[in-house]
Amino acid sequence: QTVNAYGKGNGSSLARLLERTHAVPRIERIRFVTSHPTDMTDELIDAMAGLDAVCESMSLPAQSGSNAVLRRMKRLYTVERYEEIISQLRSAMPGFEVLSDFIVGFPGETEEGFQATAELMRRGEFQTSYVFKYSPRPDTPATRLVDDVPREVKERRNQELLAIQNEIAVKKNRARVGQTVEVLVEGPTQRDATKLTGRTRGNHIVVFKGDDSLVGRLVNIEITDATALTLRGTPIAALA
Asked: In 3-state terms, what secondary structure has residue 83?
């Protein structure tokens, strides 16, 4: 799933693939999924910033805010390098949104290490974050480590991180109320066929009233309300 490792060993790169994809007529948006901080390069960031169709969002899992835990995870980067990448992306592409992943209760995670993760989440102001409680996975190196964080501690840390992320997301999304955003319409919502859902370039989910004629089109939506996970709005104009 580490898409930004594309091309390793054969002289290619994800940056070059983005450039070739961007050259295809009528491609309005380019987005890719999970990237690994170790494989982020200046070449890729420059390509993303220089290609209009590349969306301003990326899934870039941090996993922990503790360098000691990252070493035990064999993640091969530091917290400082992770934050440097985010800074580069946001400087190169204003409004860039980062989705992250975190694991709490990894073997050897101290309370100090967990608090470092909580602080990274606060500093990072991620669009959203998936938070998981560590559990041993068969045939992985981590199974050789002692699973020494009690279950109730994992649960508490999990809930604390979710609460921090929710607070960040609500604040950021509510700040978008009154703004007009470009939405690629995906289709009707599961709960209400009279409402459509789509995504902004920053990968925010937007729900609004509309009919099937808008599916697959780019539409300008004025944001009228927001929750931690969803923006709600009113269509202004179809763009394409």
From this structure: helix
